[in-house]
Amino acid sequence: MSSKHTNVCIKNINGNLYLYSWNYRRKHLRTARKKQRYEWKYRGPISSKKTQNYISKLPIESQRLIELEIRLKQEEYEKQQEELSKLKKEEPYNSRFNEIMKIANRHRRNKLLKELEKEMKSVI
């Protein structure tokens, strides 16, 4: 199946931005093994040269939209991190954070930190 990937998606994973492209797969082209409607392709981290080359080959309008989306995703992530740091300083979360940091077992500590962060994100 020959396809041109012009549909792109930018995902923020732990503060790092990654570029994915996707293409709709028509029903008659789907097989029993691949019943997916969309074919996703990982293009790489935004900062890589390979990804920048891919973006430069897209139409100018798409390039502008991607750059705008990158800026918005970065600003959104930074804003979320600022709010999380403010919440960590407030009392119910500050005492829990300090208790968790006293735990010697790294795996248990990381698990509890993730749970605390998840809870704080639900408040935001």
Features:
124 residues; alpha+beta
Q: Low-confidence stretches at least 5 residues in length (pLDDT < 50)?
A: none
Radius of gyration: 20 Å
Helix content: 40-55%
C-alpha geometry:
elongated
Work out the number of β strands: 3
Strand order, largest beta sheet: 1-2-3
Query: Which structural class do you get from the secondary structure elements?
Result: alpha+beta
Major sheet description: 3 strands, antiparallel
Q: Count up the helices.
A: 4
Could you report the average pLDDT, rounded to the nearest whole number?
A: 89
Strand content: 15-25%
The topology string of helices and strands comes to EEEHHHH
Alpha carbon gap, first and last residue: 44 Å
Short description:
The protein has 124 residues and is of the alpha+beta class. It contains four helices and three strands; from the N terminus they run E-E-E-H-H-H-H. Strands 1-2-3 form a three-stranded antiparallel sheet.
Written account of the structure:
By secondary structure, this protein is of the alpha+beta class. Helices cover 55% and strands 19% of the residues. The protein is built from 4 helices and 3 strands. The chain has helices spanning 49-57, 60-89, 91-101, 106-123, and strands spanning 7-13, 16-24, 38-45. A hairpin with a 2-residue loop joins strand 1 and strand 2 (16-24). Helix 3 (91-101) runs antiparallel to helix 4 (106-123). The mean pLDDT is 89.
